[in-house]
Design a protein that fits this description.
Oligomer: single chain
Distance between the termini: 24 Å
Helix content: under 10%
Radius of gyration: 24 Å
CATH topology: Maltoporin, Chain A
Largest sheet: 22 strands, antiparallel, barrel
């Protein structure tokens, strides 16, 4: 509590004269009709309306983030249709329509303002405190399920997440925030955003997060007197620092960000000594992006982009190999590249896009060694080129029919074959408020260098790894009556082959293309927004993920049922607002024939920006019913999550 009071006291003293604060970005108070007319960057890079895009688009806005009190990107993704998250007390993972491999999210393409954030070591797309952005800087989050590789590339295997940042004018000046929560969690943020007199829009932000974590965590498999009766003591701490900046002037946008996050690991994963220090992971990521966008003719736009990115990881862990041995694990990735893209409506009844992307992996370095005595277990350095050429054309066949056809060629230095993947969509606007879509797409995922160089038991590496493949089929109906209501239903099927998994025989510990899966499913979502700010949204996803070579075998980590309900209500004549969230995740199979139980989470958030000029105060209760629910960890073990948690947050603008 002292940390929060000190932070709030600093905020109040920093300015005695406060101006009105605009805490929300442009999309905050839009109706459903207006939201469906907003151009979705993710859908196809053509800037289409969501209802016209060859995909099923899910969007949450800055207003939703504030209303429901989501603390990280992982919280927001867990609230979106078809997605579910898990956590192994090291990292957070996102599953899509039943598919969940706890793979550092390498099968989901994560972007910030259209720039790929998956790093080049594990292809990781990080979503919790290890994510690049403070959640208060997010304007909206777009999610596109299915293989979107035609336009975006290899990691859009299961779908893509595009995080759109706020513009400086949304802050309207200086903004400071402080919060405290359970487990001695605290956070502070200072941001400045404004549109200057010459039209330049600027946004700068810095934040720090810290948490002691749960003091005592129980792990049944270590329940012996020699291992502290299964209790990991004071091994759940976490800290993160973030910087972000964006400057937009006319056709130019320069942006960059940095995050460093350290997390203690209490699970003794991969045979570590239980309840000992050191046991931690540290991830650091940096990006810089320069973009030039200009209308070169009345019907044609040009986009040029260049970028540089870096990722660093290191971890220290203690193992008992007859004697206690400290092991150090580290990796470094550096890459740069650029993109050129044209979009045009120059041809009658057509809207097309064509582009080329290039990435050079400057460094893909991994090293693992025992400290004393010094023994190198792994040392690998790779570098190489990636080139992608893509095109897509949306053709107005008739007044109510659109054919979307595209293709993408990929050269990737980590695989042997050049990839060609198509994307097809047929869209029928049957009535003014009803749209039908039939979609097909395919894509690939190249093995990352961690999979290529993995040698868990030091028997060597598998040099025969090839790319994973997926073919996605989906039928969608969207209904948008003119009363702030939308209803979406879909049937989908994914054919997934050559999935990289550990050797199922357990003899080598090496990766191989052993997995072949069929995913069948259905999904619906209904949403209603009222003019006074009330919101009701519900979604349900059923997915059956079957192993091709094991009929009747239920795939590990895959829930068949995911249900979500969100309700928001203004209180006291709009003086405050309450947001209630209900997340149900079905049971999931884990190793040894066991199951992680289904669970139902209820989260509650109360917020008000009317208590004082410029002040936005919120109180959140997470896991209201104190359910000690079960998550699924990387090795498909069961890990107990925290019970009821609290958070108090204050944001002040001036």
């Amino acid at each position: 509590m002292k940390k929060f009071l000190y932070g709030l006291f600093f905020i109040l003293l920093s300015r005695t004269s406060l101006a009105n604060n605009t805490h929300a970005e442009d999309l905050t108070d839009l109706s459903i009709e207006e939201l469906m007319s907003v151009e979705m960057i993710s859908a196809s890079r053509l800037g289409q309306k969501a209802s016209q895009a060859p995909s099923s688009v899910s969007v949450v806005t800055a207003s939703d983030i504030r209303t429901f009190g989501w603390r990280t990107l992982a919280d927001a993704l867990n609230a979106m249709r078809g997605l579910f998250t898990s956590n192994d007390r090291s990292y957070s993972y996102v599953g899509v329509r039943g598919f969940n491999q706890n793979d550092f999210n390498s099968r989901v393409l994560l972007m910030i303002d259209g720039q790929r954030m998956n790093e080049n070591i594990y292809d990781g797309g990080y979503i919790a405190q290890e994510f690049m952005l403070d959640i208060d800087l997010i304007d909206r989050i777009e999610f596109i399920p299915g293989s979107g590789s035609t336009i975006y590339g290899a990691n859009a295997f299961l779908g893509l997440v595009n995080v759109i940042t706020k513009k400086g004018h949304a802050l309207g000046g200086t903004q400071a925030a402080a919060e405290i929560g359970s487990f001695d969690a605290y956070k502070g943020r200072a941001s400045y955003g404004k549109t200057l007199a010459n039209g330049t829009d600027v946004l700068f932000s810095a934040s720090h997060f810290g948490s002691a974590g749960a003091a005592n965590l129980y792990f049944p498999k270590f329940d012996t007197p020699e291992t502290n009766n299964g209790i990991a003591h004071n091994l759940d701490g976490e800290a993160a620092d973030r910087l972000f900046g964006k400057i937009q002037y006319k056709e130019y946008t320069l942006s960059g960000g940095y995050v460093s996050r350290t997390k203690q690991v209490p699970t003794a994963a991969f045979g570590q000594v239980f309840n000992t220090r050191p046991s931690y992971v540290n991830d650091q990521q940096f990006f810089a992006n320069l973009k030039y966008q200009k209308q070169i003719t009345p019907k044609t736009d040009l986009l040029l982009k260049s970028f540089y990115q870096q990722y660093d990881y290191h971890a220290d862990n203690l193992f008992d190999v007859g004697v206690l041995t400290l092991n150090h694990d580290q990796s470094n990735g550096q890459w740069l590249g650029g993109e050129a893209q044209l979009t045009s409506t120059a041809f009658r009844r057509q809207r097309w896009i064509a582009g080329i992307e290039y990435q050079y992996d400057l460094s893909q370095y991994e090293k693992n060694y025992d400290v004393n005595p010094y023994v190198v277990n792994l040392s690998s350095l790779r570098r190489g080129h990636r080139v992608e050429v893509y095109a897509q054309d949306d053709i107005q066949l008739a007044e109510d029919w659109v054919l979307s056809a595209g293709a993408r060629f990929d050269y990737h230095h980590l695989i042997k074959n050049v990839q060609l993947n198509p994307r097809l969509g047929l869209i029928w606007n049957a009535t003014a408020d009803t749209t039908y879509k039939l979609l097909y797409s395919s894509t690939f995922r190249a093995p990352n260098i961690s999979e290529l160089d993995n040698n868990t038991y030091y028997f060597g590496v598998n040099t025969q790894l090839r790319e994973e493949l997926i073919k996605s089929y989906e039928g969608i109906v969207e209904w948008h009556p003119a009363n702030n209501t939308k209803v979406i239903g879909s049937l989908f099927y994914n054919d997934v082959t050559h999935v990289l998994t550990f050797d199922p025989s357990g003899e080598t510990g090496l990766f191989g293309n052993f997995g072949c899966y069929h995913v069948y499913g259905a999904e619906w979502e209904a949403e209603k927004r009222w003019d006074n700010g009330r919101l009701m949204r519900g979604s349900y996803t059923y997915s059956l993920m079957a192993h091709e070579n094991k009929p009747g075998y239920r795939v590990l980590g895959s829930p068949e049922h995911v249900f979500k309900l969100h309700y928001a209500e203004p209180l006291f004549n709009n003086y405050a607002k309450i947001g209630v969230e209900n997340i149900f995740i079905g049971d999931r199979k884990v190793e040894h024939g066991m199951f992680a139980d289904a669970y139902d989470l209820i989260n509650l958030n109360l917020s008000s920006d009317k208590l004082a000029k410029g002040l936005d105060l919120s109180i959140g209760v997470y896991n209201l019913l104190d359910n000690r629910y079960q998550s699924v960890s990387g090795p498909m073990d069961i890990v107990l999550m925290n019970g009821r948690e609290f958070r108090v947050k204050a944001v002040l603008g001036f």
